[in-house]
Give the backbone structure.
Amino acid sequence: MIAIRSISTVFLLVGIVFFAEGTHAQTADDDSSLGSPQFDPYENSSDAPGTPSFDAAGSGLGAPPNRPWFGEAYSGDGENGNQDNLFDRTRTQASDLLRFAESPRIQYGWINGGSGQDIDIGELETSVMFSFPNFLQTERPLLVAPTFGLQLWSGPENVPDMPGSAYSGALATRWYTDPTARFSVDAGITVGVYTDFQTLTSDSLRLTGHGIFAVRLSDDTKIKLGIEYLDRMSTKMLPAAGVTLTPNEMTRLDLYFPRPKISQYFSSMQTMDVWWYASGEYGGGSWTIKRDAGFSDQIDINDLRLNVGFEFGLAEQLRAGNRNGFLELGIVFDREVIFRRTPSEKFSPGSTFMIRAGFGY
């Protein structure tokens, strides 16, 4: 070890000596001085050095590249030669979809149950919204949201083989025109599988959606008309109609069936505004389940809900009917649970209360 270290030291010293000798010889041979510059840097002279460019003599840069430094080769002329015709953006790899993702969304609600024909329900839903700009050259985004849902059921005593849980996996899409224009359209389609994962039939696959046409009569009045498609056993479709009024920047009245809502400014916290609201909705859903007897069935849970709560978000979001999060307390009534294969087992749980909170919804 000592010998190796000694040999390395000798080589290092020899290298230093040769470098010093070379430097001294070069200095001795070079008697020139820097002198004065041969051009005026402020004069537009042909002797002044120019900016190097591709293919210029003496530039050393060579010919310009026929493809970008990174990514795919150019496929067309002009600024948008590599443009995606569907979303009007540069083509990306699958992993680049993350740059279109917005914040994750999650909400959970609990509906109180009791004994007998009551059913205790937990409702969890989570999703991530992707926003693709300028869909089909419309200058409006296409919103795509992969969504997962979980239903937790406890009871009832009169249907002992009702499963304790059911699931949903869906892909929701939505596109809408400028809501501030005189005429606007809001359309959405959701395709999903709704099941307890013990059975999978054609009834497990459901298609839901909505189509709304709106006319703005003035800056603070809008009329809406359309349909909402639910694809349930008892209710396939609901008419959608109403009027939205914004008498001032602190109040919004969305008198719209099947989801009316009245909201008003309450307070502010840092950069967020807090509004209180009262709303109504047609709740529930539909899933396929496996019964103890071994056959597949479909269950519908339907109810009406009246809620009061607080929502928060940026001021312009809340004035437009959007929000970052909410906390609410509701009354759940006019409830029914029906089965496709065994309609005689239909029952009506009693009215109860609900607590629900969410972020991003």
Remarks:
- The two ends are 69 Å apart (CA to CA).
- Residues 150 and 167 are 5 Å apart (CA to CA).
- The first strand starts at residue 101 and ends at 111.
- Helices lie at 2-29, 315-319.
